[in-house]
Amino acid sequence: MSSLEDIRENRLKKLELLKSKGINPYPVNSKKDFCLEELISDFIKLSKRKTAISVVGRIMSLRPQGGLVFLNFNDGTACFQGLIKKDEMKNELINLFNETVDIGDFIQFDGFLFKTKRGEKTLLIKNWKMLSKSLKPLPEKWHGLQDVEERFRKRYLDTLMSEEVKKRFITRSRFISELRNYLDKKNFLEVETPILQSLAGGATAQPFITHHKALDINLYLRVAPELHLKELLIGNFPKVYEIGRLFRNEGIDVTHNPEFTTIEVYEAYADASKHMDFLEKLLKTVIKKVINKTDFEYNGNKISFAGKFKRVSFLSLIKQHSLISDPEKVTREELSLTAQRLGIKVDETDSRTKIMDNIYKKTCLPKLIQPTFIVDYPAEFSPLAKRKENNPEMIDRYQLIVAGMEVINAFSELNDPIDQHHRFLEQEKIREGGDEEAHPHDQEYIEAMEYGMPPAGGIGMSIDRFVMLLTDARNIKEVILFPTLRPKK
């Protein structure tokens, strides 16, 4: 029997001891007068109370010292010190505590606040009650694990044992809340669209497929909410947004997880240029509220959201960093040779656009550290973006790049149903050529567009990648509470 099994067996005996004395180790009720954060902030006032207070928490350490037992306990808001002292508690309660309580147990403590000789804020415990008996020990050196994925598999231990990890997810929650607050104040309406869809549209990506038994049809987990949100523009909702999960059946790496969180924002009578200005204000405001500044460190670089974001065209970056002299006219074969020289894998089914995009990601993205808008993409890069009026071969699209990561993809929305129909047909040809990520032809969306769609600007933002930036996390798994992992055998 391993030592962990020995510990569990020992704790099971303690569980039975509690039960033998008529004590429920997992009672329904508990009493909590204050959270520990309040205990610390209002200590002077509360320490003057002449009646006992009740607090709760998980025991994180036990330090017996003769007739004293010092302990630290945590209720999720803060950690606090408790003291069990002979003559201040009934002997049978002290004995039962020593016989049955372990690190990891949840306990209710009743007592009075005071300061030790060292000035430490402490609860003098008069009574205690078991709230939940733990059967497994907390890890001693959790963050020294060589198998980092074990942290992701057991995120409950990760957030319990590391305040830094827990704070990362608090930052994530605050970031989402502040985004929501900003948009709500600008009169955007938060909506919900289907996750199960009959066509996986709104982005060029390979979907997950599932089957609905009652309808006897295949459905797809959404790759984007875009088309439904734009149907709401048609339906007389001028400003809408959705925060939610997307699902793409793609590879996993440091910036990709098969399920991830985005916010998509659509505004009638806006366009890419207006939205770039809008985004600068939004991001500066939200980041300042979340981290109290607009500058932060990421991967050894100081990132600043304080100034005006630089704007540079996609093709000029390709020319500058990929040594392709004329990217507008370069052939698929020439791109394929360039990609192979750069060590980029090219499949037979890869389109000219996909190869160029992979070259851009390899040669250009890593050089873009400060917030930069990449503008003016060739038309084939997005079947849903409006063409530029002065050059129909280009689309009015932009991406925001920070620290070599794409964090926002956005454009002036195509609202010409005839052009949209032809773009979908082009995507169908690409799909028939073997590219499973090409956009399907969505006839229902075309029909909705034919009723009239207002000119509009749309924004898609990666919540996960922004949280990576704000918390200096180098792997997307670090900012997703329960990332996708291969099951253990």
From TrEMBL:
It holds the Pfam family tRNA-synt_2. Residues 172-487 form the Aminoacyl-transfer RNA synthetases class-II family profile domain. Binds 3 Mg(2+) ions per subunit. It is an enzyme of class 6 (ligase). Gene3D superfamilies: Bira Bifunctional Protein, Domain 2, Nucleic acid-binding proteins. GO terms for cellular component: cytosol. Its EC number is 6.1.1.6. The keyword Glycoprotein does not apply. Mg(2+) 1 binds at residue 406. Mg(2+) 2 binds at residue 406. Its cofactor is Mg(2+). GO terms for biological process: lysyl-tRNA aminoacylation. GO terms for molecular function: ATP binding; lysine-tRNA ligase activity; magnesium ion binding; tRNA binding. It is found in: Cytoplasm. PROSITE patterns: AA_TRNA_LIGASE_II. PANTHER family: LYSINE--TRNA LIGASE, CHLOROPLASTIC_MITOCHONDRIAL, LYSYL-TRNA SYNTHETASE. NCBIfam families: lysS_bact, PRK00484.1. This is Lysine--tRNA ligase. It comes from Candidatus Nomurabacteria bacterium RIFCSPLOWO2_01_FULL_33_24.
